[in-house]
Amino acid sequence: SAECFERGLLAGRHVLINAGPTREAIDPVRYISNHSSGKMGFALAEAAAEAGARVTLVAGPVNLPTPPRVERVDVITAVEMLAACEAALPADLFIGSAAVADYRPVTCAESKLKKEPGSDAGMTLELVRNPDILATLANHPQRPWCVGFAAETHDVLGYATDKLQRKNLELIIANDVSSTSIGFNSDDNAVTLIDRSLKPQALPQASKQKLARQIVAFIADKLNA
Ligand code: CTP
Ligand code: CA
Residues annotated as region Phosphopantothenate--cysteine ligase (predicted)? Predict the structure, then answer.
């Protein structure tokens, strides 16, 4: 069951995980980002390594130590994160836990943007879409088994199921981020796993370490089936 974590479950496997936020520069001193701590992805990397996998962890800007026996690649932007993930292929399994910025400024100003003197005018920032890292890997010629996260504030299972199907994933991990006490930046989380059977399996609130082991055990089960 998802409860029983065993060492060696992922022996001989290469597991690729991305984690944390991305940061999209506006000018040399400013950026767009989000509150992702990277804790869930780092916990998954640690659990996968404990399960015997070779783990590559592509990390956005986070303040976390690298788990033992995990190979870490640091990146800043979504475009860099995609390149680092593609460079790490082939992998047996990809877990997309990163909170990838959906948009980036169309250009990064070469010098610090200044307000117009004597004016109180607002300003408009033009944004373009970032690549979808998960969808790109799920449609890659060297396609790994693909796991995504869906952080939602409402209609959580509906949107998660939609992402599973639209991005062509084996598994989506739905995360209700409407509660203030758990989720994005806390040490605890509660998630629901939805695989292609579309039968949701809830994992009740627990530490991100404990949940990571349950998720890794669940995935290893399917991968080894
Ligand atoms: N994701 C990704 N690249 C992006 C955006 C999202 O790889 N540019 C991945 C995330 O890492 C996550 C999954 O897609 O595993 C779902 O991310 P989420 O933000 O919930 O969904 P989006 O597809 O971006 O849709 P929206 O934000 O509009 O709900
Ligand atoms: Ca998004």
Answer: 15-225
Whether ipTM > 0.90 holds is: yes
Query: pLDDT digit string (tens) for 6-30?
Result: 789 999 999 999 999 999 999 999 9
> 217 φ, ψ to 5°?
-65, -40
Residue 118 is assigned to a structural domain of this protein: no
Binding site annotation covers 92? no
Q: From ligand 2's centre to the CA of 108, what distance in Å?
A: 21
Which residues, listed in sequence order, are joined to residue 54 by a DSSP beta bridge? Answer: 14
pLDDT tens-digit profile of 96-106? 999 999 999 99
pTM above the 0.80 mark? yes
Domain extent for 74: 14-104+126-223
**CA-wise closest residue to 17 among 39, 45, 53:** 45
Could you confirm whether 185 is annotated as catalytic? no
Is residue 170 one of the residues assigned to a domain? yes
